[in-house]
Amino acid sequence: MLNNGQLDKWNRKKFFHPSTHLAQHVRGESPRRVIQTVSGVFIQDRDGNQLLDAFAGLYW
User: Fold this and answer.
1) What are the tens digits of pLDDT across the range 38-57?
2) Could you give the CA distance from residue 53 to residue 60 in angstroms, rounded to a whole number?
3) Cys-Cys with 46: which of 34, 38, 51, 57 at CB 3.0–4.6 Å?
4) Is the pTM of this model over 0.90?
5) What is the DSSP string of 1-60?
6) For residue 48, how many other CB atoms are within 10 A of its CB?
7) CA neighbor of 34 nearest in space, from 57, 22, 59
8) Closest by alpha carbon to 46, among 29, 2, 17, 20?
9) Is the pLDDT of residue 27 over 60?
10) Are 19 and 57 in contact (CB under 8 A)?
């Protein structure tokens, strides 16, 4: 299983997500949020921040 650093690097290299700003991505400035758990409409990232997943993440 990948650790958070490896997962972040792999994700950045292989994927563009719907909200990815390409210029920021190329410069390495795009956010590096890795989701760790999900419970109903709430998600928790690897840093322990709990967020409401409103409309598939459009309002982060």
Assistant:
1) 898 898 988 889 988 776 65
2) 8
3) 34
4) no
5) ---HHHHHHHHHHH---TT--HHHHHHT-S----EEEEETTEEEETTS-EEE-TTTTTT-
6) 7
7) 57
8) 2
9) yes
10) yes
Phi, psi for 25 (deg, rounded to 5): -60, -45
Calculate mean pLDDT across residues 34-41: 84
Angle at 59 between CA 21 and CA 2, to 5 degrees: 65
Tokens, residue 19? 């909200």
The 10 Å CB-count burial string (b at 16+, else e) for 19-47 is eeeeeeeeeeebebbeeeeeeeeebebee
The domain segmentation of the chain, as residue ranges, is 4-52
Amino acid at 39: S
